[in-house]
Each structure stands twice: as structure tokens, then as C-alpha cells.
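Subject: Predicted fold for DUF2318 domain-containing protein, 446 residues

User T.R. writes:
Posting the sequence so we have a shared reference for the thread.
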Amino acid sequence: MLTTLKVIPQLVCWALLVPVLSRSLSGTATAVAAAAGFVAGVAGENLLLAYAGGELPFRPLRGVCGVIFLLLWGASVWALYRGGSTRSEAEAEATASAPLAACAVAVCTGVLAGALTLCRLAPLDGGAVRLAPYLTLAVAGAVLAVGASFPARYLSRRVVPQGIPLAALVVSVLMFMACSVQRLDIFSPLSMEVMKFVHDFVHQFFESMLIPDHPFFRSDVWGYIGLLFSDKVGFWGGLVLWYLPVLLIALALRLRRLPSVAHIRQGAERRKLLAAFIRERRLRLAAPLLALVFLTAAAYQSRFPATEYWDPKPIEVTATPAGQIVIPKKGEVELEDGKLHKFSYRQGSREARFFVMLTPAGQLVTTLDACAICQPEGYGQAGNAVICYYCRTLIPLETIGKPGGCNPVPIPCSVKGDAVAIDAMTLLNTWESTVQVTSHGKGMGK
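User M.O. replies:
I've generated the C-alpha cells; pasting them so everyone works from the same file.
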């Protein structure tokens, strides 16, 4: 029961979305198609979880979410290019009279919504959802979809969005569903890509202009430049890209031209027609504004996930006279229990953090508690992934110990009998070079 309660926000969003689809498209047939799509999405995703395992069931969904967000970007630019002219009443009626096209849209939306909602129930350590929550979710989604179609007939067509504003609302709801599952999160990778782009651009620009060696740059100037390498740049840049499509659609609606009234001789009739158009234009802004609410909720879920991570306090270790850090497999911690175990090593004023864990392949690996891209805020573990606390990127356990991207920087180690040995100087030097790069922008440090 407690497991099923986790999807209540997603089911509420689904129950609010179906009446809009039903009223905007072809009525009850759309609701039935959406219900069938939701059940199919739940069943298909559960089959993937059962037979594929790992991260494979989540990658197609995350890719589809990214694609529809890019399509929304294109649609928003197109709407603004057309000068705010959205679908006419004739186009709306044409869509309503095309039940096959409307049902196809409803089925695709239902499949995606059902799959995203089921992933909220997926165990952190992989595998399919248990039978009872799986059936409960499928039935609940279908009942909500069909039941929500009845009050839809009482919604005014002036309030219900059409065309691109409808797409903005649907996509924002799906983004909210996706961001509630960290393995499907879209906002954090978007922020990370913005941060990487800014970092690489500034780095290449400074290198090409020989600015790092400029003799007239004071330390406070480098302090301002360092702001470009903070996580806030990625966050605010990601927010701009996150909100801009919906804002462009709202602007397009606001810029819709007033209808021509030159053929109407009576001034009262002219004013009445213009007032009705302005009122309708304001009502149509409700969809983009509601989409902004869902996008804000999605970004909040991405930044403050509900998942609790395994993040043990680092254990202080020492080195032998030969300069080796030797950690027994069994003792204060069990290195081979599949969990992340953190350690810290200090030599004078120098200090480094690292962790040891057993990968799904059965290999003990040692890595820094930092990556080569982000500032060293460390990692936490949840199920079959670890998360970078700086950029909120999830890294599958299968890739731990491999270099590149946001993966923890690997440290050479040797497994000798019942212990793991690490060279202390290699650890300190790697930590310091990594922290210097990530703190000052890839070697620009001043």
C-alpha cells in the first residue's frame, strides 16, 4: 500500500490531463484510447524491467522525453514565427472530426504516462514491479482516464487549449512525471550540459586569447571569472532553457493580431467583437501558465529528490612506512557488501577522500570521491547507481571504476589477499590535480 502511494501525484496529473485531451480532441473515444495506452505503457515497461534489467528499461524513456522536449522547442519557435496565430476554429473542428488521429495522440500520451508512472514504483536495485502494485496502477490509470472523460464535456472550448498550447501542457505534465524518477530526470542533465558548455567555451576562449598568462589580471578579476565555473551557471542556464519554450508560446498567444473589423459599420458591434477576442486570448494563456507550474514542480523534484542516499561518513586511514594505504576487506566495514564505503587520508596539510566498493561484475574498485568535471562535493548511493551531489547526475554501478564524464576518478589499487592496497602519494596527487582543475576551470587556476 505504501509503495502505491508514491504514484498519487502522477495519477492526479493523469486525471487532470485526460479531460483536457478528451475535450480538445474527439471526446470519449480519446479517453478510452488514453486508458488503453496507459495500461499498455505500464505493461510494456514492467516487461522491460523484468527481462532487461539494469538501466536499459530507462534509457528509451529518457530519450523519448528528451525528444518531445526538443519538439516543443521547435513548436514554440514556429508559433512565435507565425506571429502568434495558433489553430483556428476550423482546424480544431477538423481535428475533432478525425478520431483516428486524435486517438493516436491519446494512445501515445497514455503509453508514455503509464511507463513513466510505473518507473516511480521500480525497485532501486532493479527488477519488475510486484504484481499487486502493478495491477493496481494499471486499473487505477484506466479508471481515472475513462472516469475523467465525463466531466470533460462541461469544460468550455474557450478554456481548453488547442494545438501548440495543448502540446505545451501535455509535455510539461510528462516532464513532471519523468523528473519524479531520478533515472528519468531531464532537468539535471540539461543543467549539466549547460555547465559543461560554459566551462568549455570559457576555457577555450581564455586559452586562445592567452588570458591565463596575462600579467595585468588581478586576483579579484579571477574571482569574478570563477563565477562562470560555479554550479549556479548550469542551474540558471538550465532554467532558461527549461522555461523558454512555454514562455515563447505564451508570448505568441499574447501577440495574436486583433481580428479585422473594417467590414462592421456599427461601433458597438466592433467593440463587442474585439472585447470577445481579447477575453478569449487571455483565457488561452491559462495553458502556458499551467505548464509553467508543472515545469517548476519538475525542476524542484530534480533539485530536491525524495530518494535517501547511502552516504557514510569517511573513515580516516593511515599509510604504512612504505607509503601504502591498506584496507582489510573485512573489519570495521565489509568492502564486498555492494555498498559504497568512504575513506579519507591526511598527510600534513594534504587530504584526499576516496571510496571503495564492489561492482556488479564482482570487482573491488577504488575511486576519488570526486569527478574530473564537477567540484568535489562527493557521491551517494541508491540501489544500482551513485549520484554526483554537485550536478545530480546518476552513474550506474556498472561504470564505476571507468574514467570519463561524471564518473568518479579511478585510483589504481591492488587486491592482496584479504586487503586492498593504494599508493598514498598517487592518491594525494590525483586528488589535488582533480580538485585544482574542477575548482579553477581546467587548469586556468590563479
